[in-house]
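Predict structure. Chain length: 248.
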Amino acid sequence: MIDRQKQLFSAIVELYTKTAVPVGSQALLEHYDFGVSSATLRNDMASLEEAGYLYQPHVSAGRIPTDLGYRMYVEEMMGDTDLSREDQRRLQKELLMMKAKNTRLSRSTAKLLSAFSGNLAVSGMVGKDELYDFGMREMIEKPEFQEIDELCRLVETLDTLDEKLDGIMLTLKDGETRIFIGNENPITGIDNCSMIVAPYQTDEGRGMLAIIGPKRMDYAKNKSLIEYMRKFLGTSMGVMIIFIPQVW
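Prediction complete.
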């Protein structure tokens, strides 16, 4: 893949993340300056599609990243970024207020992460029958879940989520952050989503942080959010999960 095609693919990911609308050459030209014609962009997009990185959901539509495309983006293009200083400041303030009020950490953490991510968050201790979730309203308002079948499948999966956490925990090492994309997702029923997971150890036992949502999620932001929260809560109990759907 040449540099221009890498820049093009990164731009498609960025636009699709923001709009949830398949990206065409005209939209790319309106937002970016690649220094080439629309025809050249279309040819590059066709090449990326042939390589398996892009998918055209409809003949007349633009293109969206495939699971393989997102995997390439996460591993080769995204890089490691820290949570913004403003978000760090806001998180620290909220977490310190939570501790000062002696509120139930798992419940408050889920609520806080839902607010920061704009997605469904679930928090609790693995193996202790303690799970809290926030953000279902935000989840069902996303374009990915406007179809009733997709919504029902998500809700059914969440109803049994606690039964599936232990299996996921067994595959993760302490200090590891893993990103599951689409069909890689170990939770059956949400293979149209991506999930970021990061376990951590506390005095009370093993906790877990995770984000699940659409494949067009902001991977860099959500990964940095989870890793920052893991550092901050490393001495506290908790299992935390955030959900994000996929658009076709």
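Summary: The longest strand covers residues 193-202.
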